[in-house]
Amino acid sequence: MPQITASDLKERIEKRLIIENGMEVANATNKDVYYALASIVNEEIIPNWFNTNQKYASKRSKQVYYLSMEFLIGRLLESNLLNYGMLHAAKEALEELGFHTENVFAEERDAALGNGGLGRLAACFLDSLASLYYPGHGFGIRYRYGLFEQRIIHGNQVELPDYWLKNPYPWETRNEEESVVIQFQGKVHMFKRNDGSLEFKYENTDKVMAVPYDIPVVGYKNNVVNTLRLWSAEPIPGTENERMEENQAFYHDLDHQHSIEQISGFLYPDDSSYEGKELRLKQQYFLVSSSIQNILKKFKKSYHLPLSKLPEKVVIQINDTHPSLAIPEMMRILMDDERMEWDAAWKVTTNVFAYTNHTTLSEALETWPEEMIKDLLPRIYMIIEEINERFCQSIWFDHEELRDEIPELAIISYGRVHMARLAIVSSFSVNGVARIHTEILKKKEMKDFYSLFPNKFNNKTNGITHRRWLLQVNPKLAEVVSDVIGSQWIKRPKQLISLLKYSNDKALLEQFDQVKHENKKLLANYIHQQTGILIDDQSIFDVQIKRLHEYKRQLLNIFHVIYLYNELKENPNQDMTPRTFIFGAKAAPSYYLAKEVIKLINTVASIVNYDTSIQGKLKVIFLENYNVSLAERIIPAADISEQISTASKEASGTGNMKMMMNGALTLGTLDGANIEIRDLVGDDNIFIFGLTADEVLEYYQNGGYNARDIYHTDDRVKRILDQLNQGAFGVHDIEFKDIFYNILYHNDPYFVLKDFEPYLETHELVERAYRDRLTWMNMSVTNIAYSGKFSSDQTIREYASDIWKIKQV
Ligand code: GPW
Q: Is the pLDDT of residue 448 over 60?
């Protein structure tokens, strides 16, 4: 990799501006400079992209394809500069040209093609694949509108469209020549060929063109550039014109064109919840049909092997069940286009697909109405029926002990198609995303499937890319770490463990403390500039950033804040370390209770932040439009990382890992990856509270606990709930009745009251621990030291060796 100096870059930026914009630097805007720099980066990347593809082709390496309805990649200029080894030079060049680096980077719109954890995980995986020299690529959808932009107006969430493609997106290349045709609806006709085999023909289908847009995925200083291919839906060229000549078809065609473009129109804003919308089903099939066609075309072109050898050269990971129609689609092409027999096609298919499960929440499990699939995808429906038939037969004949369970195991049951069942039956690997999650799948949620296919099930604990989430977002911390233990940790993140040797070195701990404090000042400035609220940079920054969900329990957090406020009102002179509670969260637009919680947090904030009687000891900040870029600002400044889901509900969590890596201490339940964090750092370096997963599951089995008992016996709880009910936190006195009712009349389904007291007590431990700076920093450094275990490099190595069987090229 050539060394590019700041002065080279400076010159190149100046030249670009003249050639492309006909302007001098002095007249250039941040945007002009952003585009100039991006195109210079592209110039560097593109030869490597070409070479990487050549290399994979000439070595005929096995490829992994990650199919996902979401890729939450955020901004790319800074991370591409970092991975290409140009970031320092670029920062220097920009400053010398009189620009603030941060403002130039901020010209890029976040690519928010994902909702939350699942989409961000896909983005981290791509970064690790490329950085570890693995031939691995993503397939997704180029949504014209990403996840909505959130505004808070009078405390309420308001959603605005995210038209992120308004300005040209410099990282994508349209590759029209690789377009494929996707067919929906129509009729299937069956014929007998002369040799007796069956032939299926489709008639009167609606045809759509899938056009790929490719985004380079740059590996860290290794010249590897992989591909994220995003499909865009367009009318098939020529068809409009032909019809237009028939006259009068104009309006019909405009309408038709519009309905086609809708397929890649917007990302559904539901996180961990399922809605049976037909357009979403169309999107899913659009993604998988285009990707599978593309994968097979490429295999045939570059490997010159029979399709029976596909599993030796291709493995496809499906990110939850959202792309699970890829399975019948693969069967369809192998049989109908490639003339394979069922058994041969089934053998190939079941050796190519691997499935990752990301949740056990029942409201998130996808099941489609049989009729909807039958109507939209008639041939696919026939294939699913056949898979189901054969699977049920095999239970009936080979597993008599499970005969009674067939309705609970069948892929098609009571008029619905169960996608997780389809994925398990048809994949060679089924993995959960954290140890406890995989155990719950095996012992409970998918128990019978586990007994049928014990060897398919395995765990792959999630990870995060330490390049973006430490090196890029927290350069000061990265520098101190490298000063202390050298910089090998950047290539081998587990070497962060060497920090343990220094975790009692007072001078060093003070340095870490100083870095944290500088990051907190930066965030405090940002908050002031965004909200006008001044926060105390010496206060504890207590952070909960994630999608708003009842099971994630932002409500428990704000109840604790209300409790603290009530206490301070009674005793303003109370000796207490000042606290700043920072929230960032989007709610699905149709998720009423989640939106009520957003309103509650903002309402509490509007009271607490302006009450001078509490002497600035408590501040509540709700930052609007939480997204990847905002996470990048908040995470380096966090002292406490709130990971307080109802135990058993959060499959893994990944924000917990990001904050740990930046020296925050986790305050959490024994859920998801929190358990693995605790096992590493030990009980002394984490704040754990609340019911365990086993306890929660047992309560559920026995009909829950009695929430009203707590309401009637704990004055602190009663007071808070009554305040919600009586409008002490609202303009009108009906403000938060629904939250009140949900807890007392629906019996607190997420155990907020049950965990309230232990949560309070644990917060008290936090507050006391924070007073001893050195001990706190020792805990903080211990967390950073162990966080290398959660680099997605580690996760990807495990996928590669256990599931994908792919080699580094
Ligand atoms: F419901 N997750 C997510 F399982 O962000 F599909 N969106 C989703 O739709 C689902 C899961 C789904 C999250 C999990 O909630 C989180 O615990 C996990 O860390 C993350 O996926 C990545 O595995």
A: yes
Q: Using a 6 Å cutoff on CB, does residue 650 contact ligand 1?
A: yes
Q: Residue 660 C-alpha to ligand 1 middle, in angstroms?
A: 19
Coil, helix or strand at residue 692: coil
Residues 642, 542, 634, CA angle at the centre, nearest 5°? 95
Q: Which of 358, 421, 553, 586 is catalytic?
A: 358
In the residue annotation, 552 being an active-site residue is answered as yes
Give the whole-angstrom CA distance, residue 235 versus residue 182. 10
Q: Is 100 a catalytic residue?
A: no
Q: Which two tokens stand for residue 694?
A: 């086993």
CATH 1.10.490.110 matches 466-487+505-699+764-783: no
Q: Where are the domains of the chain?
A: 328-462, 466-487+505-699+764-783
Q: Are 804 and 140 in contact (CB under 8 A)?
A: no
Q: Which residue in the block uniquely carries the two structure tokens 């295999």? A: 299
- Letter string b/e over residues 449-462, b meaning 16 or more CB atoms within 10 A of that residue's CB: bbebbeebbbbbbb
Residue 669 catalytic?
no
Distance (Å) from CA 145 to ligand 1 centroid: 21
**Can you say whether the dihedral through the CA atoms of 231, 233, 236, 238 is positive or negative?**
negative
- The reported pLDDT for the residue numbered 3 is 83
CA 396/CA 236 separation, integer angstroms: 46
Active site includes 658?
Answer: yes
Model confidence, pTM:
0.98
Find the mean pLDDT for residues 231-244.
79
Quickly state the pLDDT bin for 240 (edges 50, 70, 90): low
Of all atoms in ligand 1, which is nearest to the CA of residue 117?
Answer: 5
* 365 Cβ contact partners less than 8 Å away, ≥ 6 residues apart: 274, 321, 359, 418, 419, 420
Residue 319 Cα to ligand 1 midpoint, Å, equals: 10
Instruction: Cite the DSSP H helix spans in 6-134.
Output: 6-16, 30-59, 77-84, 87-96, 101-105, 117-131
Tell whether ligand 1 has an atom less than 6 A from the beta carbon of residue 269: no
Mean pLDDT of the chain: 97
Q: Ligand 1 centroid vs 761 CA: distance in angstroms?
A: 30
- Answer yes or no: 300 catalytic: no
Number of residues assigned to the chain: 809
Q: Which residue has the tokens 């909807």?
A: 372
Q: For 422-438, how does the pLDDT look when each residue is reduced to its tens digit (9 = 90+)?
A: 999 999 999 999 999 99
- Give the Cα separation of 546 and 566 in Å (integer): 26
Q: Whose CA is nearest to atom 21 of ligand 1?
A: 118
Share of the chain above pLDDT 90, in %: 95
Report which ligand 1 atom has the smallest distance to the Cα of 361: 1
The 3 state secondary structure assigned to 638-654 is CCEEEECCCCCCCCCCC
Nearest to 215 by CA among 71, 102, 335: 71
Atom of ligand 1 nearest to the CA of 358: 4
pLDDT at 730: 66
Distance, CA 149 to ligand 1 centroid (Å)?
A: 20
